[in-house]
Amino acid sequence: MTEVVGVRFKKAGKVYYFDPADIIIDPETPVIVETSRGIELGETSTGNISVEDEKVIQPLRKVLRIATEEDLRINRENAVKSKDAMQICQRKADEFGLEMKIIDAEYTFDGSKILFYFTADGRVDFRELVKDLASIFRVRIELRQIGVRDEAKMLGGIGICGRPFCCATYLNEFSPVSIKMAKEQNLSLSPTKISGTCGRLMCCLRYEQEAYTDLLEKTPKAGTLVKTPDGEGTVMEVGLLRQRLKVLLTDENETVAKTYPVSDVTVIRRTKPQLKKRRDTEEE
After folding, report:
1. Would you tell me how many other CB atoms lie within 10 Å of the CB of residue 259?
2. In angstroms, rounded to a whole number, what is the distance separating the alpha carbons of residues 102 and 120?
């Protein structure tokens, strides 16, 4: 086991482990650490904890110190300068005729580098822009192209649910989301219904997917021949979350539909998947 503290550099950002260097640090404490980008100010997401050795990437960098009032003042000044730098970068990009949108800018804590985040439809040759920015700011310049989901995470906003974006409040990283999840959850496949503000499939489609997958595995599908307390019948409708089946029963005199709990039904013969369904799965 290795003693570490978890540090975030952005709200809802990824947590990185650092060596506390014999300092007892509480959660939500601003700290100064050394990273691959240089000296940075972050906030602890956890206090001193012990984690398994295989979860730690060696060599483990150390926490230099708990941030002082002077450190916090410098960080606030850097944040103000970053906003000005972002505006200058966008103006220069427009002058060079580059079709790119500057989303954010970050000064490293020691002021030795500025990192600009941007979005663009394709690849952008920004070499001349970097040279121009370096001559203006007299520091190292780095431009990083990001996707629309990262843009939404950085800018934040309100989702169609009326709450702040999940990605901007607590999601540390993006997980894969597919149209198959929407199908299995019996949601409308209209892009306006299942897409977030970023234009991609909503991250929340994944939240209940494990439960849906488990229920689908043990619930008969429509068209399945089943045995019920009242005889044999064919499943007409499936209430997946309620775990109830509407079954069409047929005897010599009449045909009637009744609803049963899944636990009261035994499968006799499952429905065969149609060729079209297989093709849909392959296309996804």
Report:
1. 13
2. 9
